[in-house]
Structure formats: structure tokens, C-alpha cells
Amino acid sequence: MENGAVYNATTEPQTKPSCCPFSCSLQHLRGWRLPTKALQAILSLLAVIFEEIVQNCIMCGGLYFFEFVSCSAFLLSLVILCVYCTNIYETLGKDKVRRGNLWAMPAIGFCFLLASIVLAATSSGSAVEKVACVFGFLASGAFLAEMVIERFHRQKKTASGSSENPGNTQSATENQPLNKQS
């Protein structure tokens, strides 16, 4: 018997690389995450579009800040959506993607909220600026809502995990020795 035959039966078969390196799947965006991510991208895109339609501004600094933040938020939401939908998710790993998302969404949400407040304060009052501002507030709400939903699900998961074995006390069978001595 060859040495290779002995070891082949006990090793796991190699996984074949996928035929398409950039395949798209929604398996990591189940439940509430897919609508939230889609809403973030759509609302931030609408904020960018309406901001670009503004033709005249009196105090343009707020508009330029809103333009930068809304465009950045839209692009970052697309990048994060692409990470969740492609093989990059497996390459980076679930923990790194979730941790990055956990930090990025509140940061984007707070920046968007600040930019919307600045735009509302420096707006000349045109209808298009008001609509852009409304979509800015809605988009910041979508980004911040994901943070709230994620924290709620984490607390719910932690609470259900701790109720099964409060205080990490060991049960009677866990206290028994593995080998009974005679």
C-alpha cells in the first residue's frame, strides 16, 4: 500500500475554486440587512442627484460639504454592498466584514446627518435644496438605523445565550469526571 493511499482517506477533499471569481450572491444579506443596504444606497444616490440639480446657491460651502459627504456615502454604501454580495466576503471573513460595517455605518450616518444640518442651515431655500436636504436626513437615518438594528440583534442574541446557562454555571453532568476511578 502506498503512503498516499493511507492519507487520502482521512483528509478532506479540496474545494474547487468557483468558476466565476466575481460571482454575486445575496446569501450574506438575509433578513433585514438587504432592504437596509439597498435603502442606504438609493437614498444617498437621490441626495447626490438632487444636490447636483441645484443651480444657484448663496452660501455654497454647505452645499459643497453636503455634496462631498453624500457622494462619499453613496460610494461607500456601494462598496460595502459589493463586499457582502461577492466572494470578497469569504476572503475577508465574516468577523472583519461585520466589524468594518459596524464602524462604517455610524460614521457615515453621523457625517451625513451633520452635512444635512449644515445644508439646511446654509440653504437659500430653493425647492431642490430642500429635497436634497430631506433625502440627506432620510439617508442618514437609514445608516444610523442599521447601527440600532444591529445592536438590538446583538443584545437579543446575548440575552438569549445567557438565559440558557445563567452565570456560566456548570450543570451536574459537566461536573462529573470523565474517567471514573474504581
Can you offer a commentary on this structure?
- The chain is an all-alpha fold and 182 residues long.
- 69% of the residues lie in helices and 0% in strands.
- It contains 6 helices and no strands.
- α2 (33-53) packs antiparallel against α3 (60-85) and α5 runs antiparallel to α6 (127-164).
- The longest helix has 38 residues, at 127-164.
- The protein is elongated, with a radius of gyration of 25 Å.
- The model has no long low-confidence stretch (mean pLDDT 82).
Give the topology, please.
Layout: H1 3-8, H2 33-53, H3 60-85, H4 88-92, H5 94-122, H6 127-164
Features:
0% strand, elongated, mainly alpha, 182 residues
Q: Give the N-to-C terminal Cα separation.
A: 43 Å
User: Assembly type of the shown chains?
Assistant: single chain
State Rg: 25 Å
Helical fraction equals 55-70%
Average pLDDT, rounded to a whole number, is 82
Strand fraction equals under 5%
Largest sheet, strands/sense/barrel: none
Q: Residue ranges: pLDDT <50 for 5 or more in a row?
A: none
Count of DSSP H/I helices: 6
Structural class: mainly alpha
How many strand elements? 0
Overall body shape: elongated
**Succession of helices and strands:** HHHHHH
